[in-house]
Amino acid sequence: MPQFLKANENHICQYSDVSSTTRALVAEEPLTVLPEYARIPIVFTVDRVLDVAARDDNPGRFALSERRLDVPYDKDYDRIAGQGPLEWARRFDLSKWAFFTARLADRIVGGASVAFDTPQLTLVEERRDLAVLWDIRVAPSARRQGVGTALFETAEAWARRRGCRELEIETQNTNAQACRFYERQGCELRAVHRAAYPALPDEIQLLWSKQIPR
Questions:
Q1: Among the residues of the chain, which ranges form H helices?
Q2: CA–CA gap between residue 36 and residue 103 (Å, rounded)
Q3: Of the residues 7, 31, 39, 135, which has the maximum number of CB atoms within 10 A of its CB?
Q4: CATH numbers and ranges of domains, the chain
Q5: How many CB atoms neighbour CB 10 within 10 A?
Q6: pLDDT of 1-13, one tens digit each?
Q7: What is the pTM of this model?
Q8: Residue 159 parent element (H or E)
């Protein structure tokens, strides 16, 4: 499990897996970090999708089953028009957002962005006790080393300090690795929208929620 040593607004994160122990510095950054943040790749390979079904034994809950694809493909959210970090300021008021980076050996290898009190963002639902993990990304060379967990826990702590009781995340059934990651962070799948993306009719919107303890 990650261990956090707090120094002002920075966290030194130490975590380990079977093969290595790595140290990363997770820090809150100003808005001006976005050009550097945008250089962190978010592309991933879609080699499986999640089929979603309502659970008969637990109304309101969902069962996810993985289905392998015969022909994998790469997906890059930043290549979708208006989605990249350099486009956010054109779409939203970022004055109450938080931006975090994770560094290894002075090199940025990950980032996370949290939206809060943003009327233009429908996921916020006009609530002041809800934050949205709008973006989380880790460079391919640093994945599966705990960087994502360090970023998620830092984002959750930031939301807690602002009185939020819930952290919400949007993803799709084509991003199975992200969904499993959110499950490990204690998130629950609370909503499924099968027609959320008219231009991508085969993709299902999945809305995850993490209750933030006081």
A1: 34-37, 88-91, 147-161, 176-184
A2: 12
A3: 135
A4: 30-100+108-211 (3.40.630.30)
A5: 15
A6: 233 333 334 444 4
A7: 0.88
A8: helix 147-161
